[in-house]
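Quick question: what would this complex look like in 3D?
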Amino acid sequence: MKHENGEDLRLLQLQFIGKILAGFTHEIKNYLAIIKESNGLIEDLISLGKTSQGDSEQYLEITRSIEEYIEKTNNLFRYLNRFAHRMDSQLATFNLNETLEELIALVTRFANQKKISIGKDFQEDIPPIYSNPSLVQFVAFSFLHEKIKNLDNNSKITIQTAAAENTVKLRIIPEGNFLKGNDDSPSITYEKLEKIIKQLGGNIVQEKEKETLITLAMNSP
Amino acid sequence: MPQTKLLLVDDEVEFASALAERLQLRGYDVKTANNALEALALIHTHLPDVIILDLKIPGMDGIETLKTIKKIDSTIEVIMLTGHGDVQSVAEGMKSGVFEYIMKPVDIGELTVKIDNAMKKRTKEQ
């Protein structure tokens, strides 16, 4: 499939959103399943009369688990909400670290399937940039997802950010073996991704063998 | 009927332990595994009658795990845990000998009915 025009790009962005939503709903279902079973266990213990004074620690442990998963559910919803709002305007001032943080939260499920850990090495005081946040997320996702797909189990990916002169740099660093025979090219062509980033005043470099460095202008042209 | 021996395979530790305890309270003999390799090892030591297997477990694809289980002992019945939208995997699982499917979050009543039906089928076949 060629991605020569805007219509193709929109289709690929829709596929990206679809993947994010599929991962999100699957993860939420898992969290709800944990909450439901934990709640059901308390109900069982009470209704089957298996309770005694000494069981209070077990109850507290179960309620803590419920609390933890409600918190996780809430966080994931918060990330999804922020992700959705990235599409509100084509150009906006935003913090690159925050956009990547929500992207990582939303793709973690794909990585967990292969026990691939995603680490963050963000420059904390990175300045805000004026660019297209949803397109930046889309490009970052394209590279990140391909690396997850092609890396062997138990690998690691580090996402690094840094500011330099009038640019911010995003580096995606894989550590681990790449699966042989897998097509490691992104589902969208490299040229297309490069074109998107060029339009935003930046560039992409495939460093070493598998590392990706995306440079973005602080102010989109 | 003898006590049904279950093996529950799910990488969500809290989910597996809470569900296992609920099933134990209902009279089942339950062991849990959090990945495919652990599950395959437990088949030899625990000798389960029914395996409740999450479709998406790390280490080995759920369908691949199912095929391996059936190679070890084709009479072990497998109930697959699945999220919505896994239509392709459901079809593939059916072809590979899955007894039943159940969606997450699980309804414990529905699950126990499926476990008992699976056990009846296994007893008949043995």
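Answer marked as accepted. Residues 6-47 of chain A form the longest helix (42 residues).
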